[in-house]
DNA sequence: CAGTACCT
DNA sequence: ACAT
């Protein structure tokens, strides 16, 4: 279990091809029910380059007026999020070491030119629960720093099936995606990358 | 402060 | 830097 930095664990190719394909099929059905939306920055309303949706009791959303938050319904359809699939609960149980189940699975779609700036995941009330991140599709350059934005960072390439766990000391580490490497995976017919992020919100 | 533009 |  390689440790990128304190509390940040990387499990290369944790999911085999068959499991990855199963997840992609599962994601397609979730997206059919809960359409992708474009998140925007609070205040400015500037769009992010990823598209997202969620499954589970809670979903992470953001808009110009109310900013980052978790809510139980889709921001466009107003419908509850699709249920958390068993397979994600299983993965959480296998890698998180955390007793309570995840309440939110944020599904981020990265086109080949999408990025995610350095940030902390700190919208959850339970900051003792780890964050579990699953990579599918094209490779990406993932960057992890420390608790301060200006701390030194390390970059690693993530490939399809990789899992990263930010827990303990690493739970609030700044992290982001600097770039997607086009055509590095055959998992997604339309290219790009999907990232699933499992989180516990309530203590 | 989960982005981008525009510097050197 | 600008703006959050």
UniProtKB/TrEMBL annotation:
Residues that bind 2-oxoglutarate: 108-110, 193-199
Pfam families: 2OG-FeII_Oxy_2
Entry binding sites for Fe cation: 119, 121, 175
GO-annotated cellular components: cytoplasm
Cofactor binding note: Binds 1 Fe(2+) ion per subunit.
Molecular function as annotated in GO: broad specificity oxidative DNA demethylase activity; ferrous iron binding; oxidative RNA demethylase activity
GO biological process: oxidative RNA demethylation
Binding site for substrate: 60, 68-70, 123, 149
Keyword Repressor assigned: no
Entry keywords, A to Z: Dioxygenase, Iron, Metal-binding, Oxidoreductase
The keyword Transferase appears for this protein: no
Domain called Fe2OG dioxygenase: residue spans: 101-202
Cofactor: Fe(2+)
PANTHER family: ALKYLATED DNA REPAIR PROTEIN ALKB-RELATED (PTHR16557), NUCLEIC ACID DIOXYGENASE ALKBH1 (PTHR16557:SF2)
Protein name, per record: Alpha-ketoglutarate-dependent dioxygenase AlkB
Originating organism: Rhizobium sullae
């Amino acid at each position: 279990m390689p440790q990128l930095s304190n509390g940040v664990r990387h499990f290369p190719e944790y999911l085999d091809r068959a499991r990855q394909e199963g997840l992609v099929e599962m994601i397609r059905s979730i997206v059919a029910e809960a359409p992708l939306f474009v998140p925007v920055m609070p205040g400015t309303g500037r769009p992010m380059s990823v598209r997202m949706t969620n499954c589970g009791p809670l979903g992470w959303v953001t808009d110009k007026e109310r900013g980052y938050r978790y809510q139980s319904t889709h921001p466009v359809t107003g419908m509850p999020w699709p249920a958390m699939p068993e397979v994600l609960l299983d993965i959480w149980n296998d890698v998180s070491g955390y007793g309570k189940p995840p309440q939110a699975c944020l599904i981020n779609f990265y086109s080949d030119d999408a990025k995610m700036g350095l940030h902390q995941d700190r919208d959850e009330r339970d900051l003792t629960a780890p964050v579990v991140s699953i990579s599918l599709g094209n490779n990406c350059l993932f960057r992890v720093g420390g608790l301060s934005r200006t701390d030194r960072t390390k970059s690693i390439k993530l490939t399809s099936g990789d899992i990263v766990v930010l827990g303990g000391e690493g739970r609030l580490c700044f992290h982001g995606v600097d770039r997607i490497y086009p055509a590095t995976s055959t998992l997604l017919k339309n290219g790009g990358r999907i990232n699933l992020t499992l989180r516990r919100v309530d203590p």
